[in-house]
Queue: 3 jobs
Job 1
Amino acid sequence: RCYRRSKMAAPTERLNDFVLKLEWYATNLKQSGEPDLELLQTIQGITSLFREQLYREMAEENIFQSLLKVLSKAIHEIELASKGACRLLDAWLQLSAECFRCQRNACANCSKNQCIMMNLGLIDVSVCLIWRLNGMNDDQQFSLAAFRCGLQYLGNMAVGNRDSQNSIWKCTFPELFMACLNHLDEKVVTYGAMVFFTCFDTEKVIELQDVKNLPVVHSVIRAYRKLPESEWLFLTITSHFLKCPELVENIYAKLSNQERITLLEVILAKISVTDSVTSKETIPLKLVEFLASCFQETCKDVLKLASGTSTDDEESLIVIRLLDVLCEMTCNTKHLECLQNYPELLETAINILRLTHFSGKQSKNVFTVSHSMSQIEVSHPAVGFKAHLIRLIANLCYKHKDNQEKVYRLDGIPLILDNCSIDDNNPFLNQWAIYAIRNLTEQNEKNQEVIAKMERQGLADYSVLKSMGLQVEEHDGKLLLKSLKKESAQ
């Protein structure tokens, strides 16, 4: 027992030695404007100890009271420096950074220390200092280091503590978040995004919808466009923004074309990973409808690519990304049902398929059927566009009688059959066309008869029908489309 007590006493004494030194230096700061080197070393020692949970749990309020005194003095001295009255700026910046590191380590996975620091007002003082640091030159090495550490501290303070999150949000939203998201330093952007995401909740989404706060949303998307590897920015958009269709609709109107493409690519990445048939986490149906309406309004912009003068027309790229998103959404049962019943979406898809198909026949361009990849680069954004259109049409007609009839009335069946060919500009075009015919003819004798008559008149290629597993038969004076009978093995 005595041995165990002595083992526990050693860590306590080690921490207490540092704490006594810290208290003395913090108390005597007012007597001199110059920070003592031993004060910096003392805080560094405590920072090192706080890497271990044992020492974090042993920490008492007096440690954080001393750090509060140091930070308050640092704010004063840095303010003097901005007026040219302090010649010890670097020393105070280094001390500030170390205080933030110490606080950051202290509250990691330790709600006790989070609560102590919040009750002492350390969040307010820390944010005040961070603001001072933000106003300094970006090329100031020590101020940038302190700025980064301050944001890391706020991030750790917010984790798992709703009171801390609300306190940080109150001190930082929206100005500090805007400053971080638009900062030139990538780490500042990343750490700022971490704090923003960690403090975020459903109630704050409502606050973001206020017109005066939309620039924050805009800054998140703009920052993600510059830093597409940032997980915090991606999660902010996918876990919070996309759950509020009204917010997305409001910000979409304010985005540049490049930013719209970025947002659509985020949505595509989100639904490609999570929105399967069985996934519980889906994009709201109102957002699905909004994206469908955007496609309807702008789909003809893709025809600009037929001129061949540009392969990166931004308005055309938006249409291509919208189609990619809609196609991927049809993989989700709820989204598919929503899109199948969305007014005139099917009509729009057939119309733009007809226009691109006609454009490809009028002149040699990106929409022309090709049997050689030399005609168009694989990386061209329009590669696969017609195939995706037919994929969308096929899925919209899946087990949907009304949509089968719409395609019939719009004379879409001959158009789809005309696309049942190998096209290197549209990988899997033939397969999607076959799938579309299958969905159009399933339990639909009228559509079957249309195809059968086309084959009899030579308007439909028998080999194409055969590749679909279909054949035309005449029964009681009527032409019927039937499944090919399996030939017996020879």
Job 2
Amino acid sequence: GLYASESVIIWNALVVLTWGATFRQRWMRKASELAYIWNVRNVEQWEPPMAEFLKRNIGLEKKPHPITGLSEPYFTPAQRRKRYLLSIVVTTILASGVVVVMIGNVLLRNAYGKDNLMKKTLQGIQNAVSVTALDVIFALVADKLN
């Protein structure tokens, strides 16, 4: 049968699902209402490329945009594949790091007896250190890739 915590998780999931669907529907209605009030229903949402993007991609091939006709940076299929592959590798490595931390948490939880003060203290320290370390690693990778 279901444990008490499992039934709470199921009810929580149902509440979050219902709230999310309701909130999204209400937001779409509000956005439509504001677009009507501000008279921007038929306005195209086009923004020029950011200056930072243009600076970082100076060596890229340029092609005319199919809609505006303006020349803008273009990634060749080879460059695009290289970036996709790099993204997959980095994501896999970072996700593996998260899995290792989770396994460490489970092992630490099972290493000491029930409700042991040492166990709770070590778990708290491990969680704090691992969250901080992963946050720093994610930020460094994001800065390096951007």
Job 3
Amino acid sequence: LTVMLTVPALSELKIVSTPYGRPGPAPCALTCSGVSTYDETGYNKWITEGKGAGKYVDISECGFSTIPAVTVTLKGFTCPSTYIYYLHEEWFGLFTVEDATVFEMKSNQCDVFWTATGFNC
């Protein structure tokens, strides 16, 4: 007979500032993360934006009530630097710093790994 004891993990998430205002109540702090893949279609596909490429990423499942702080990194064969241009409670938009085409973003399999931190109440 084996008895297993579990101890709940206690963690604290503290948000000291947000992109557009003061932090919300501590119990409402939330970190949410995901991946927007290079081969997505529809609203979340890579698009041509000037001389570069861009992508809108849906974060609506996180349930943010305010605009979160978002960090992104790209994973692929040869992916350019990006910057976040639009922030919203339910989505964000990012664009490449260097010239890039949609074809390059797809052929290099540039996935967007993201983490968003904000408040859900």
